[in-house]
Amino acid sequence: MVSILTISLVAFAGTSAAVDASVTGPGEVTSPGTVDVQSVVDVRGSEDVRIESFTLTVRSAGSPGEEVAVTVGPNGTVRSVAPERGVAGEGEIRIAQLRRSLNVTVSGATPDYGYGYGYGYGDVSITVDASFSSTALKHGEYELFLSVNTPSAEDQYRSSAETFEVLVPGEGSPPDRGEGTDARGGPADGPRRGGVR
Questions:
Q1: What is the CA radius of gyration of the chain?
Q2: Between 1.10.10.10, 2.60.40.3880, 3.20.20.70, 3.40.80.10, what CATH number should domain 9-167 receive?
């Protein structure tokens, strides 16, 4: 069963935030598969906000310092994936596989002159769709969040972190199915040898 992630954007820049967002995605993915994430960024009227980019961060739930950050412009162009290569953490996130399978589109945005997009004086909704192959992730739990970057500061508006799980058949210990057997049907505490444990 697929559950839905909901992320409410939190403004770190002050109490009168002009930007908020929600993100939906799979609560659980069986690999090989696709991790699909959709974010809707709402800019409320009466305030002028210039958005330079969006950053989607994926990190291992057990290693919050080890993460991959994908930054895209308001037109959906991927500007950077950091780190650029290798793996994050103990190999939980494979950078090259994520980059090769990454697809990002931005819709509902209206270009403004200069660098970035200006919004304000009327409600505007921007949709950021991102997807990548789950084969870029090892078996385990991951966190993701979205940041909205403005000229004032990167990460000026940022969502709370939500988790999803990647299940990779064959990785990790098979679950105990009860009756003293594991998922393979063998004894839960080890193989029998000569009829004696």
A1: 21
A2: 2.60.40.3880
